[in-house]
Write a structure and sequence with these properties.
single chain; alpha+beta; five-stranded mixed β-sheet; 23 helices; 21 strands; 36% helix; 12% strand; elongated
Length: 761
């Protein structure tokens, strides 16, 4: 139903609109201007008075899509992202010259007529009849604004855009009806403001503020008369009058606008003449859109923030709803990224691993007790060129990452935590022989048992023949003794370990379930650096696990109003007792003080951590922490093809890569920079009674591999899958591991394998 006035009946504007819209406008004017062939026949539009009245009385005006700004924790800009580069500004922040220029060239009688300019219609109709074509239009600025609203509502859907711009009488009638409504409800100045903010100025710039920045690197409020004339001239045909690609055509169009401004009295003829002599004076700012433009090497963190927004239900119940909010933009997202930590991470990465190296590195830092992601970086930059990538090597596949990487012996502290929670004493001693068959049977979840094949048992061994127990937990952890940890998981069962891993947020990067096999003690399951950093943050926070978060706050601007959106919160829960965490902290302090991680130490600042190197050296890790920061560093070939043997990384040659040799120093430099100026805190440690094992040297591990063997990671024929272990033992020779594995007994899963086969009984 048409809108009634308070005194009853249609307003004069509506009455005129009905008359014009249905009779003259629908027939001669609309058809004659938009569709000259139809107009020549004098054909009236399909719509009658009734069809005009049946159109909805209120036009739905979607929020204008704008740029979204992503900030670090200190408020510094990381990047801007947008589907349409637009910054909405009020009319007072738009140069008066710009306001006059757009009115002069697009609708000089804007302030004298209503929604429809009858004089302009008749003039255009007459001229078009004379030329036999469409040499002049008659749409008012208000009608153009309405058309732009239709286009904005269509978004990036090509079908909807075509419908919004098609030259049909039906669309013109709808445009007219809404133009009448807009005139009555908004008034001239608001219509002008809205028009200048919605219209397209070419070069990916929507709205006058983005256009002023794009072409002149200045704000819309500072535009001069000749600059305003140039922008106003672009609107009619952004491609034809593009000043970047056709300066001559753009100059002619600008001068036409200046002449028109003088003709209607907005400027003097002398002003127009002077302005016409001026060069275009472009100072073009290239479009800066997306995470590829992020500063401080934070492109992948930026991408992670986008993934969080698009996947977390807190931003919308459906994927489509979240995508719509993201694409509309106008968001200011303050993140958890600490600029000091991010800078330190990128600097350390750059110093140790070159982007052109055969292998890459990725690192993440998490704040214990809050789950805040402080830094995220990698050696291969965000991009599309050689030695660049769009895959975030720090995160799980579901968040834009890859399939993950076997963490090796960095998984062992999780096994130790499960054992301690199960009541095992911290000075527990195992025989830890150099070589052994996997103990069997081993209990698993749901009453199942893993059973080794008695006829052809799978075996594992330590890296060096000198590594022969007995060992207690302290020494076995410092030296990363494989056979000790396999005996441990065989003793407590597999289920407590997978349960502890789940409590600590440790999951496979590809989303698959953790298999119930004893070789998980040796780090056979592919995981991401962020997962491991966050897991070790649980130890640092004395057993409290907090889910990782990247977003502190989000504000959304729609028109003149700004509102706050709810953001995902970290959920903290107790994964283990304080005593268990304190015991792990005590054990892992020994790793950096006297074990495989000495090269990652932070000097006088207390730290703890664990090295890891996978079998065949496809990946090497160091995961460590202080009471106030936890970080993980992975080095390897993302494609899982290049073994790190006889390799050059960061300009330095390595015969064999160990977790304490390459990732360790990266971690040490990264954390030193991130923690500079931060309080020096110490761990709550516990006394671990001495089990008095016999002396076997300091076990600094320089002579052996530092991990728990993770299997033949290339998955050849599906064998090995994580049974053959090594460890960074007490120096000495590095013998070629010898073992006997019956064909078909051990099955991995392609890239990396899921550990020892065996069977469940």
């Amino acid at each position: 139903m048409p809108k009634k006035r308070s005194g009853g009946g249609l307003s004069p504007t509506q009455q005129a609109a009905k008359f014009l819209g249905v009779s003259v406008l629908a027939g001669a004017v609309l058809a004659g201007i938009a569709l000259p062939a139809v107009g020549a026949l004098g054909l009236a539009a399909k719509g009658s008075v009734e069809s005009f009245d049946e159109l909805p009385a209120n036009m739905k005006t979607p929020p204008l899509s704008q740029r979204t700004t992503i900030l670090d924790a200190d408020g510094g800009q990381i990047a801007t992202v947008y589907s349409r580069d637009r910054t909405v500004v009020p009319l007072k922040d738009i140069s008066p010259y710009m306001q006059k220029a757009i009115v002069a060239i697009e609708d000089s009688r804007f302030y004298q007529h209503g929604a429809v300019d009858l004089k302009g219609v008749l003039r255009a109709l007459n001229k078009n009849a004379q030329t036999g074509g469409v040499s002049e239009g008659a749409s008012t600025l208000t009608q153009q604004y309405v058309k732009n609203v239709f286009i904005e509502e269509a978004g990036d859907d090509p079908t909807k855009v075509a419908q919004a711009t098609q030259q049909t009488i039906g669309r013109k009638i709808r445009e007219l009806k809404y133009a009448i409504q807009v005139e009555e409800e908004l008034g001239k100045k608001k219509i002008l403001e809205n028009y200048l903010n919605i219209t397209f100025f070419g070069q990916q710039a929507y709205g006058v503020e983005a256009a002023a920045q794009r072409y002149f690197s200045k704000s819309a409020k500072d535009l001069t008369v000749e600059q305003a004339a140039l922008l106003a001239g672009i609107v009619q045909s952004p491609s034809r009058y593009d000043p970047v690609n056709d300066e001559a055509e753009a100059t002619k169009r600008r001068n036409t606008v200046l002449q028109r401004m003088a003709a209607v009295g907005d400027i003097s003829r002398a002003q127009a003449a002077d302005a016409m002599k001026a060069p275009l004076g472009l100072k073009v700012s290239k479009p800066k859109n997306g995470c590829i433009t992020a500063v401080k090497g934070a492109g992948f963190f930026c991408d992670y923030v986008r993934e969080v927004f698009l996947t977390d239900p807190v931003f919308g119940k459906t994927k489509e709803r979240r995508a719509k909010i993201w694409n509309q933009g106008g968001l200011t997202i303050r993140t958890t990224m600490d600029p000091q930590s991010q800078k330190a991470a990128q600097r350390s990465i750059k110093d140790h691993v070159y982007k052109s190296d055969e292998v890459a590195t990725a690192a993440s830092i998490v704040q214990p007790g809050t789950g805040k992601i402080l830094a995220m970086g990698q050696s291969r930059p965000y991009g599309f060129k050689k030695n660049e990538t769009q895959i975030n090597l720090s995160v799980d596949q579901s968040m834009g990452g890859g399939m993950g990487y076997q963490p090796g012996s960095t998984f062992k502290p999780i096994v130790a935590a499960a054992a301690l929670e199960d009541g095992m004493p911290a000075n527990k001693v195992y025989s830890s022989p150099y070589q052994m068959a996997y103990p069997s049977p081993v209990s698993a979840c749901d009453g199942k048992r893993w059973v080794n094949d008695p006829n052809s048992p799978a075996k594992l061994q330590n890296e060096n023949s000198s590594e022969v127990g007995p060992y207690d937990m302290r020494e076995a952890t410092a030296k990363s003794v494989n056979t000790y940890y396999v005996q441990m998981i065989s003793d407590i069962g597999i289920c407590p370990v997978t349960t502890m891993a789940k409590k600590m947020g440790v999951v496979r990067a590809d989303g698959d379930k953790m298999p119930q096999v004893p070789s998980i003690a040796l780090g056979t399951q592919e995981m991401s650096p962020l997962t491991m950093a966050n897991a070790y943050a649980t130890f640092a926070s004395r057993g409290m696990h907090c889910t990782p978060v990247a977003i502190e706050s989000v504000s959304r601007r729609i028109g003149d109003k700004t509102s706050s959106l709810e953001v995902p919160k970290s959920t903290c829960s107790r994964a283990m007792s304080e005593n268990t965490a304190d015991t792990i902290n005590t054990l892992l302090k020994g790793v950096v003080e006297d074990g495989t991680g000495k090269k990652a130490g932070l000097g006088s600042r207390p730290s703890a951590g664990k090295t890891g190197t996978t079998d065949e050296r496809y990946a090497a890790w160091f995961v460590g922490y202080t009471p106030n920061m936890a970080g993980a560093v992975w080095v390897g070939d993302p494609a899982h093809k290049r073994k790190m043997v006889g390799i050059t990384i960061g300009g330095r040659s390595y015969g064999k890569v160990f977790g304490g040799e390459v990732p360790g120093p990266i971690w040490g430099d990264m954390m030193s920079g991130a923690l500079e100026g931060k309080p020096v805190e110490d761990f709550n440690t516990v006394h671990i009674p001495d089990s008095k094992p016999r002396d076997r040297g300091d076990g600094d591990g320089d002579g052996g591999r530092d991990d728990g063997g993770n299997g033949d990671n290339d998955g050849d024929d599906g064998f090995i899958g994580g049974l053959v272990g090594g460890n960074n033992g007490g120096g000495g020779d590095e013998p070629t591991p010898s073992f006997s594995i019956p064909e078909g007994f051990i099955r991995g899963q392609g890239n990396g394998g899921n550990g020892n086969g065996g069977r469940f009984g």
